[in-house]
Structures are given as C-alpha cells and as structure tokens.
Amino acid sequence: MSMTSIPIEGATLLDLRADMSLSARHELAISDIVKGSRLWRLAWTLGWLDIKLRYRGSMLGPFWLTLSTGIMVGALGLLYASLFHMNLHEYLPFLSLSLVLWGFLSAMVSEACITFTEAEGVIRSVRMPFFVFATRVVIRNLLALAHNIVVIVVVFALLSVVPGWGAFLALPGLLLWIVDSLALSLLLGSFCARFRDIQPIVNSLMQIAFFMTPVIWKPEQAGHRFFLLQPNPFFDLLQVVRAPILGMPADPVTWLGACLYSLALLVVAWLFFIRARGRVTFWL
C-alpha cells in the first residue's frame, strides 16, 4: 500500500510508518536530536518554569529542598557516625556530598519516566523534537542540584575542608552524567509512555539501590567484599564525581566501569528511541 507524504513543519507522515527502513529511522532520530539541541533556550525556559511552578507560593522556593537536605545531612551524620564509630570531621563531608549527588541521580531516574507523559498536552498540540523534553528534564534536575550544592559548601566551610584543584577532575564525570541523563530520559520516557506501570517499579528499584550503593556508608567499609560493588553501575558513576571532590581521584577501573555502563545505556537508549519515536504520540 502506498502512502502519501504530507509535509508537516519539515517532517512527513512517513515518520509514522511501521515498515520504515532502519536507515530512515536513524536519520529521523538524528534530526530530532539536532533540532532539539538548537532549541536549548526553550528547554532551559521550560526547566526553569517547572522549578518556579513546583515551589509557587513558597517563601523559600527551591531552597526548601536545600533546607531539607541540610537537615537530613546533619541528622544522618550524627546518627551514622556514632553507629559506625567514624570521625565526624571525615564522615560529614562524605555524607553531604554523597546525599546531594545521589539526590540528583535518584530524581533524574524517577523523572526520566515522565519525560513525555508530563508533556502530553504539548506533544499532542505542537510538533516539537522529543529531545527538547529530555533536555527539559535534565535542566530541571541540574537546577535542583545547583540549589543543593549550598549544603556541600556549608558543610565543607564549617569543617574547614578544602577540596583543592583536584576537584576539577569531577567535571568529566559530571559531563558523563549529563549525557547519560539525556539518554535515560529518551529511553525511560519512551518506555514508560507505552507501559505506565514501569515508573513505580523503577522507584522501588532506586530505593533498593540506595542501600546497596555506598551513599551513607563508605566503600572501604565493604572490606574484602569490595569486589561486589563493581557490578553496581551507580557506584562507578557516583565515584567518578565524588572521589575527586574528596581529594581521591577515581581509579582507572572505576572510570572504565562508568564508561562501559554509559556506553551500554547509550546503545540501548538509541536502539529503543529510533523505534519508539514515531509511536510516542500515540502512546500518550
């Protein structure tokens, strides 16, 4: 059966054909990402608007999140330092940095599931690259991370902890996080648009991952079982950012693991996105 190609803002209804060739799918997906990247100002505005609307009518705005994180760091720091018999001066900087970074990872995974479902109205009414919505979610969580960095600065200042120039080695890790977050938003956003019951499962898995990842406990506490941490992707991804800030650059094995996990995520996300891209609108 033939199909008439009807132009729609630079695209055609051929985008929706189930029997489209693989090369055509790749081209359309690449075009989506390129056009979406050019609309980064729009994504920034949408992400900033999400933060403003989330805390609308609040006196402290996003800093309520900062305050709650600070209280959690103080409470857990005193509790676990006494339980684990650790020096509070060494443990509190580790805990504050870990909780803030984990907060970003956890929120990013959770909100990646609603990348497209929360924008259902916009997607149905305006033809726009899907990559814009993925960028929106990442920017929104980066803004939340920026507010929580205040907690780290305060804790480090109170305890006279100076990260040093080695902290800049965390920047490549942060860049890796951003790339992974964009891929994750496209993957989980598309997948959860089709299967709406996936998000609660993902949230439950993240709660389990929190206790299995050295966030409130240090990696060296694993002792001879340290090798069990290597299959945990969150450990490697967390360590490549956390270790340099604490003055302990991540070892090559950790970086290798983080890069391999990221590469696997990118491949899976791309393969799923090129097939799901033309169907997302119908799944919403």
What does this structure look like?
This protein is mostly helical. It has one domain. Helix content is 69%, strand content 1%. It is built from eleven helices and two strands. The chain has helices at 22-38, 40-54, 63-83, 88-112, 120-125, 130-158, 170-194, 198-212, 233-245, 252-276, 280-283; strands at 7-8, 11-12. It has a two-stranded antiparallel sheet with strand order 1-2. Helix 1 crosses helix 6, helix 2 (40-54) packs across helix 6 and helix 3 (63-83) packs across helix 6 (130-158). The longest helix has 29 residues, at 130-158. It is globular. 33% of the residues are buried.
Q: Any chance you could write out the topology, listing elements then pairs?
A:
Layout: E1 7-8, E2 11-12, H1 22-38, H2 40-54, H3 63-83, H4 88-112, H5 120-125, H6 130-158, H7 170-194, H8 198-212, H9 233-245, H10 252-276, H11 280-283
Antiparallel strand pairs: 1-2
